[in-house]
Each structure stands twice: as structure tokens, then as C-alpha cells.
Amino acid sequence: MSTTYAALLRGINVSGHRRVPMPELRLVLQELGHRDVRTHLQSGNAVFTTDAGAGAADESALATALEDAIERRFGFRVDCLVRSGAYLRAVADACPFPAAELEGRQLHVTYYSAPVEPERFAALDQEAFLPEEFRLGDRALYLYAPNGLGRSKLADALARPALVKGLVATTRNWNTVAKLVEMTADAADETPG
């Protein structure tokens, strides 16, 4: 059975550092045996189809294989999260904010490598950051930042090392979240299972 996934690479192609050209990323994924490989933007978003199952263990194994392949090709390691199209759709559908009413730059999802307990953020005084807000989801955090991520004091607070210790975390704006849902759905529709 084929499953369509998105690979979310963390911290590449930022200010000319840790450069991973998208054509080469597509090639790396193809060399790993994946097909229907496509990328979105230059910030490390790739969609691919593979015959692996759709469980969390499969996602973790796919991410590790991609991290290893990137390190071999480029000489540096990049944290990667791999999520199935079905998971991405579920995260989008569970958004606690009115996504259709907001600009894409105002709403973000931070994907985590593991579930995040509310206790991790208990010491954070959410009222001090209003009108910015966050809500936890399944291995995800939804952030409403009305002035965008670059000006968000709450985003800075949520990224403190003590709060994300032991986790891989990578954030995408809502436009990218929606595009990855669309791309993984399209690939799944085209791939016979």
C-alpha cells in the first residue's frame, strides 16, 4: 500500500546557511526509493509517495533515513519531520482558530517530533502576550500572531530552549500548511493503493 507524506526540514536555506537546493532534495528523496517527489518553496517542504505504512514508527524511520541521506550529500545534519497526508489534514481540520478569516501570515503551526504536554507551557503567562494566542494539538501547536511571526513575542517565548528541550520543532505559516495538505491529497488521489 502506498502512502503520501510531507517531509518538513528544519532551518535550511536561511540567510544563505545550510543550503539544500530543492532539486537536490528531490533527488535525495528519489534515491531513497520514493516517488512522485515534489517540493514547495525553498524552506524545506517536500511531498513524496512511498510503500511504507502510515504509522508514527514509519514516519520516524523515514525522517531518520532522510536526515542521514542529507548529511551524506551535504555534509551537515538537518532535523526532519515526516508526516502523512492524513495527519496533515487532521491537523488543519482541528485548527482552533478561524483560519478562513485570517491571513496566512497570522496563523502558524509548529509541528513537534512527539506529543507535547500542556505542563511544558504552564509557566507561560498567555495573557501577557494577548492578542497573540496559542493552542496545543496532536504533536502540533497552533499560534495566532496577528502581526506575523517576525514580530511575535509569543513565538519567541514558545521557542525557548527549556520549552522545546528534547523535541524537534519546525513551524509553517498557514499558507504552507494548506498547500502541503493540498499537495499530499493530490498525490494520494493520483497514486493507486
From TrEMBL:
It comes from the Bacteria. This is DUF1697 domain-containing protein. Pfam families: DUF1697. InterPro entries: DUF1697 (IPR012545). It comes from Streptomyces purpureus.
